[in-house]
Amino acid sequence: MEFRRLGRSGLSVSEISYGNWLTHGSQIEEEQAKACVHAALDAGITTFDTADVYAGTKAESVLGRALAGQRREGLEIFTKVFWPTGEGPNDRGLGRKHIIESANASLRRLQVDYVDLYQAHRFDRTVPLEETFLAFADLVRQGKVLYVGVSEWTSEQIARGAELARELRVPLISNQPQYSALYRVIESQVVPTCEREGISQIVWSPIAQGVLTGKYLPGQQPPADSRGSHESTKNMVSRWLRDDVLERVQRLRPLADEAGLSLAQLAVAWVLQNRNVASAIIGASRPEQVTENVKAAGVTLEQELLDRIDEVLGDVVERDPLLTVSP
């Protein structure tokens, strides 16, 4: 496993991190979830990403139990706050009450005294940004949060947050956006802003919800056990389940073969060629998926290969910064 610094901080993270958005507490049983976490640890992954809202707070609890007994200093544990975690009007958003209460609840579920990175899961237009960052500042001063990040913020929102963070001495070091060879929305505005502000990307969906594995074939129904066929997840994948996209993905297979990689490994390696990306989050429902995908760590793709990938994907790549897809 290779490691990269997160933003202009002293925190190193594994190039590939393990996330449990769609799996722990929902799609797979807990013993299988634990097996995936242990496969990640065995592969050298030290960075684990979750959120209070995943599986209605269950995902944090499953991850906490799976990591129990591990040396805390050897792990980087990330979680998030914003989406509703209860029925009350203060059980959501980035107001002070919800941030403080959610942070304490996340620590209990994760069975830790602090999280390495606490992320604003979305931007909250209903709350003054000063209130949000003052709450983050207090959590940092209390030692419950070491660093702060955001997720799916626009370049303008990130710039505003970075200015406040400097004023309040809050270590804002990361953004967590969707990014893949098929979805490059962050490249035109978000990445340049983050580079100026000393902020790294921790990207989700580097294999485009499984589409870049090549398992979805043009002219055929999605496999029965795939996200493209499940009622709860098929809307996340449907944007790419078009024959023109799937045909282009299949044309990447010879390029992956030349590089000695699977299509999934090629996809993960592709996002890591962007030096503003500190880590790519992978999910897994089986331990062998973790073992295979970590092989993308430390891979350097030659510029000629990157150019050929661009040529193959062509106009099916999404680049419009006004488009967003939310987990």
The major beta sheet can be summarized as:
8 strands, parallel, barrel
Which secondary-structure class do the elements indicate?
alpha/beta
CATH superfamily: NADP-dependent oxidoreductase domain
CATH class, please? Answer: Alpha Beta
Structure at a glance:
By secondary structure, this protein is an alpha/beta fold. It has 12 helices and 10 strands. The protein is globular, with a radius of gyration of 19 Å.
Annotate the secondary structure layout:
Layout (H helix, E strand, L loop, with lengths): L2 E3 L6 E3 L1 E4 L10 H13 L4 E3 L8 H10 L8 E6 L14 H15 L4 E6 L8 H13 L3 E7 L3 H14 L3 E5 L13 H8 L2 E4 L30 H4 L5 H9 L1 H7 L3 H10 L4 E6 L4 H7 L9 H11 L14
Parallel strand pairs: 3-4, 3-10, 4-5, 5-6, 6-7, 7-8, 8-9, 9-10
Antiparallel strand pairs: 1-2
Helix pairs in contact: 1-2, 1-11, 2-3, 3-4, 4-5, 5-6
Structure overview:
The protein is of the alpha/beta class and 327 residues long. The protein has one domain: NADP-dependent oxidoreductase domain (TIM Barrel, Alpha-Beta Barrel). Helix content is 37%, strand content 14%. The chain is built from 12 helices and 10 strands. An 8-stranded parallel β-barrel has the order 3-4-5-6-7-8-9-10, surrounded by 5 helices. A two-stranded antiparallel sheet has the order 1-2. Helix 3 links the parallel strand 5 and strand 6. Helix 2 packs parallel to helix 3. The chain starts with a strand and ends in a 14-residue tail after the last helix. The relative contact order is 0.14. The mean pLDDT is 91.
Keywords:
327 residues; alpha/beta; TIM Barrel; eight-stranded parallel β-barrel; two-stranded antiparallel ribbon
